[in-house]
Amino acid sequence: MLRMTNLSKVYRTHMIETHALRGFEIAVAPGEFVTVTGPSGSGKTSFLNIAGLLEEFTAGEYVLDGVNVKGLDDDARSRLRNEKIGFIFQGFNLIPDLNLFDNVDVPLRYRGFNAAERRERIEDALARVGLASRMKHYPAELSGGQQQRVAIARALAGSPRLLLADEPTGNLDTQMARGVMELLEQINAAGTTILMVTHDPELAVRTTRNVHIIDGQVSDLVRKGPSLATATATV
Ligand SMILES: Nc1ncnc2c1ncn2[C@@H]1O[C@H](COP(=O)(O)OP(=O)(O)OP(=O)(O)O)[C@@H](O)[C@H]1O
Predict the structure, then answer these.
(1) Handedness of CA 190, 110, 122, 173 (dihedral sign)
(2) Residues 11-68: pLDDT tens digits?
(3) Which of 36, 129, 130, 131 is 20 to 30 Å from 230 by CA-CA measure?
(4) Which of 7, 8, 37, 42 to mutate to test the pocket of ligand 1 (most atoms within 8 A of CB)?
(5) What pLDDT score was predicted for residue 221?
(6) 51 CB-side CA count, 13 A
(7) What is the pTM of this model?
(8) Which whole-number Å values give the CA distances from 16 to 7, 10, 11, 87, 216, in the listed order?
(9) Residue 216 confidence (pLDDT)
(10) Which protein residue has the closest C-alpha to ligand 1 atom 3?
């Protein structure tokens, strides 16, 4: 689904260089549900934003669903992003003045679907997240967990191959977080690849893979943990 090779991201502000990612390597197969963990400032959001073509990288290679991202101009990047990727954010990012139907419609308007096609997609997506009966409601009339479900519906309506979620349960209480996680697991089981940044260790162990980032690099400490322990035990 995606492969990054020797990728780096350097932010330059006020003459200061911050190396958010360095020698970053990852390959994610279609159908995986990968959680991304790591300390604050380690590069998780930078990784997700680059994966989602929201930010450019400084050096290295990134191939998304067979497309080498490096040579693409802004239009081609936007097209690729709209077609392949759905986003979910910690703060839901719904538009308060639009009802749920119109919120889910926002990204579809960029995709060239006609009105009938859009309506079908919106109704399907809201039904998938259990909110079909609330289409005329506004975000403020919903709980946090329901608002995140609308954001998930908005991300799904365009049938993305890849869903990127940055702390999607970070603003939710435990029960609502569990509900959102179960929904993401259903979406993954139906074939969508998911990358999810989380600080919640319980969520991190539920998925098919956890990638731990430290200082802008994928740390293999987590993966090597058990074998290191075994090695120590046998010395
Ligand atoms: N726009 C920016 N300009 C300058 N530096 C930035 C910018 N965005 C991120 N950084 C820096 O890049 C590094 C990685 O940031 P990033 O947001 O990717 O970390 P993170 O792991 O997502 O952190 P957190 O868990 O706190 O959200 C940090 O040192 C951060 O200060």
Answers:
(1) positive
(2) 999 889 999 999 999 999 999 999 999 999 999 999 999 999 999 999 999 999 999 9
(3) 36
(4) 42
(5) 58
(6) 32
(7) 0.90
(8) 20, 10, 8, 30, 17
(9) 97
(10) 11
The pLDDT of residue 100: 97
36 Cβ inside 6 Å of ligand 1: no
**Could you tell me if the CB of 45 is within 6 A of ligand 1?**
yes
Nearest CA owner, ligand 1 atom 11: 20
Q: Of 22, 91, 30, 106, whose CA–CA distance to 57 is shortest?
A: 22
Output the residue whose Cα is nearest ligand 1's atom 25.
40
Residue 174's contacts (CB-CB under 8 Å, 6 or more residues apart) are none
Q: What is the pLDDT of residue 111?
A: 87
Give the distance (Å) from ligand 1 centre to CA of residue 198: 15
Domains, the chain: 2-230 (3.40.50.300)
* Cβ(49) – ligand 1 distance below 6 Å: no
Residue 153 in contact with residue 126, Cβ under 8 Å?
A: yes
Which residue ranges in the chain fall short of pLDDT 50?
223-235
Name residue, tokens 């200061």.
16
CA of 203 to the centre of ligand 1 (A): 22
